[in-house]
Amino acid sequence: MKDNGGTAVALVGTTASGKSALAHRFSREHPGVEIVAVDAMTVYCGMDIGTAKPSARERSEVSYHLLDLVEPSEDFTLFEYQRCARDATREIWRRGGAAFYVGGTGLHARAILDDLDIPRQYPQVRADVEERARVNLAATYEQLVRLDPLAASRMEPTNERRIVRALEVTMGSGRPFSSYGPGLGHYGESRVRQVGLRVEVEEIDRRIERRFRSWMDEGLLNEVASLVADDRTLSRSARQAVGYRELLRHVEQGEDLEICVNDAITQSRRLARRQRSWFLRDPRIEWFDDPDEAATRIGNILNGPDGFVRD
Fold this sequence. Notes:
Structural class: alpha/beta
Number of domains: 3
Number of strands: 6
Shape: globular
CATH topology of the largest domain: Rossmann fold
Helix content: 40-55%
Radius of gyration: 20 Å
CATH superfamily of the largest domain: P-loop containing nucleotide triphosphate hydrolases
Strand content: 5-15%
CATH class of the largest domain: Alpha Beta
Largest sheet: 6 strands, parallel
């Protein structure tokens, strides 16, 4: 956060692992602990049911941050998310509270917890690079080798997405993409202690299906339909939200609803596996199978020297 620091802890895990319920209970029982949502989609207004946002009652019991920041028609970059997270954290610390980072979006977690140096986006540059990459990816990669050989060495010559992003930043910012940090494969000393809530894959699969079908009963389809009603548009990032993008096929293209629901469940399970793999790569996370044991560790961190963030 680039200031004097304060008290903080993080709770991570896959979707449907129970981390949100644990975090809410813990914060309700420990006044002054405020939840900072680590989620790429809860920033969007109107996307409530399918992102498992806390209810109005829950928000009256515990302070939540980084919810409902923008309309779903707007793109919201990782750079903007990090800026808002920094602001929210400083405000919590100013009041003498503790920041409790909770979520399952791994890249957003790294942006906050490791205070990554995140480059901005340069849409016009990106459009030009994307066009050249479509025509000749090999030549585009060779350009990256010339401009930023270190960045080029960190990626495969066939990884179009990463090549385009590296060139976009290098050309748009005027500094090498590699100068923004050693990459996500590097895990430095912990700034914020992380507790992980671990649940067996089979149980996560069962929970995902139960939860998604309960969301349908609660009106998720109507929520999705309202997002594109009256010629409203969804941003590219909002449209990628798992569960929403599958139901949008029914709303906009008339695809069979049960097929879309089953696909949403399948994609949610795949998301959980990607999240699991992401977090398991981080050796700094302390894993717990028992939510009560995880809560005890969280309390010990916040009440001990490990809870203090030093920048």
